[in-house]
Amino acid sequence: MTTLYTETFGQGEPVLMLHGWAMHAGMWRDFAEEVAKTNRVLCVDLPGHGRSPSVYVGKMDIWAEKILAVMPKEPCDLIGWSLGGNIALYLAEKYPDRVKSIILIANNPHFLQEESWQGISKSVLDDFANNLQTNVNATLIRFLGLQVRGLPEGKAALKKIKALMLECKEPEFRDLMLGLELLQTTDSREALQKIACPVLLVLGDKDTLVPVSVAEGCQLLRPKLEVQCIESAGHMPFITHKQQVLALVQSFFKRVE
Question: Are strands 40-44 and 99-105 parallel, antiparallel or unpaired?
Answer without folding.
Answer: unpaired
